[in-house]
Specification:
It contains seven helices and six strands. It is α+β, with helices and mostly antiparallel strands and about 280 residues long. The two termini are about 30 Å apart. The chain binds zinc ion.
């Protein structure tokens, strides 16, 4: 069996704390904006939380890299916790908006306020005679749970993905890499050769130039030479295939961050004339 990249589980504790501290105000600001949307009655169920989670997730991805987090489960938890802060924070902002500045630090009354607010919130209809709504606690808490889970997942997933990228423990840096588009058939052949340890039988791999066809493969080579010549370079390859449909494209992972030797990489280069750039020192 070919080995795959294994995250070490480590992280830079000081940077991680700084990153979380930096994301606190952003989570608060986004929560406050969600609360504003709720007050303005433009709170579209699921859609607004989804929109609010995107910038939080994007910033989280950048800061996860900066914190050198190589612990995907921990990364997911941090991202999910920040999104929870944002989502629950919107109701804290509601409380302050309703009770005034004197409620700014009333963390003690917040749980009660939250339960009461969600119990009596109107998801469907409003207080006008035209669309009379009736609060439905069961529906409200379901929406609460779904929206919270959605936000937590969007943010946590970006943290998780960032933490799963290959990292060189020796040089303390994320690995650089190159991505090459291949013809669909070539990607499958390469994946099979990698999975069966038979790279020497590999035929010529055809790369795609210009516009991608409907079905194409992607070869991503990531590695670290540790800044010197030698055979101790670490190299990982990922191969996927994408089929573009009418409405959306679907990507299938064929090989996920499999470890290969420099000799094996040389073999792949030989069979793929367009892969002549050195991917390891990006
Ligand atoms: Zn290195």
């Amino acid at each position: 069996m070919r080995s795959h990249y294994q995250p070490s589980g480590l992280f830079d504790p000081v940077r991680l704390v700084v990153a979380i501290a930096a994301l606190f105000p952003l989570a608060g600001l986004l929560g406050w904006m969600m609360s504003g949307a709720l007050a303005e009655n433009t709170y579209a169920v699921v859609f607004i939380p989804f929109l609010a989670a995107l910038p939080l997730a994007a910033a989280g991805r950048v800061l996860a890299r900066w914190s050198h987090v190589r612990n995907p489960p921990l990364a997911f938890l941090v991202g999910a916790a920040l999104a929870t802060l944002m989502y629950v924070g919107q109701h804290y902002a509601n409380m302050v908006a309703l009770l005034g500045p004197r409620a700014l630090f009333r963390f003690d009354i917040f749980p009660g306020f939250l339960v009461d607010l969600v119990n009596h919130h109107l998801v469907i209809g409003d207080h006008s005679p035209k669309y009379p709504g009736k609060p439905d606690p069961w529906l409200n808490w379901s929406v609460f749970g779904v929206e919270l889970a959605l936000c937590a997942f969007i943010s946590g997933w970006q943290w998780y993905r960032a933490a799963r990228r290959p990292y060189c423990e020796e040089c303390r840096r994320w690995l650089g890499g190159t991505t090459t588009q291949l013809r669909g058939g070539s990607a499958r052949t390469l994946a099979q050769a990698l999975n069966t340890d038979s790279l020497e039988t590999l035929p010529t791999l055809e790369a795609v130039f210009g516009q991608s066809p409907e079905r194409y493969g992607q070869l991503e080579v990531m590695g670290c030479m540790h800044g010197r010549e030698g055979d101790d370079a670490i190299i990982f390859v990922t191969v996927s295939e994408t089929v573009r449909g009418e409405k959306r494209s679907e990507t299938t992972s064929l090989v996920d961050q499999a470890a290969i030797s420099p000799d094996e990489l040389a073999l792949i280069y030989e069979r793929c004339p367009s892969l002549q750039v050195e991917p390891c020192e990006a």
